[in-house]
Amino acid sequence: MTEAGLDAARSLRAWLNRQQFSDLPTSEVTAFFTDAVAGWATDRGYEVQREVELPTIMRQNRTGRLDLQLRHRSGEGRLISVEVDRGTKEWSLEKLVQAAELGRLALWLRWSRTLVTLPIPPTVRLIRAQVIRRTTLTRAKLHSLRPDNCG
Asked: For a tag on the chain, would you pick the N or C end, based on fewer CB atoms within 10 A?
């Protein structure tokens, strides 16, 4: 990972460490993190695109889509590709590896307390959000994030 990639990952990690939420259902947590990354990017002068197709990667006749693509408004610097996941999806990692091969900075934001079991190549920067999960009496799964829980 280049110094620019490390700087972007450190900056995003610091931004996320100031975020928090309580008792969100699973369906809303990815949206929260996607919006948080978009807020970080906008604050730093990036244009944010969501659900962006990768030009060359396909799997089972599906085109690869990245959750976010960030382009600086100045036109300087490289594109930043971001995937936001709860699980350890090999497909997400493959898309980010492809994005890095296309010259983009590749960031994988994973929100879970479990470890990633896939080997992460140096071209992809992993950011782990330590989200706490609890199950209610009605068996609903609710998630919370406290400040300083992203590493």
From this structure: C
Q: What digits encode the pLDDT tens for the residues 67-88? A: 999 999 998 889 999 999 998 8
User: Nearest 5 degrees, angle CA 81-CA 82-CA 84?
Assistant: 160
Q: Give the other-Cβ count within 10 Å of 46's Cβ.
A: 22
DSSP 21-52: EEEEEHHHHHHHHHHHHHHHHHHTTEEEEEEE
Between CA 40 and CA 93, with CA 58 as vertex, the angle to 5 degrees is: 45
pTM of the shown model: 0.88
Contacts of 14 (CB under 8 A, 6+ apart): none
Q: What is the pLDDT of residues 111-142, one digit of tens each?
A: 988 888 899 999 999 999 999 999 989 998 99
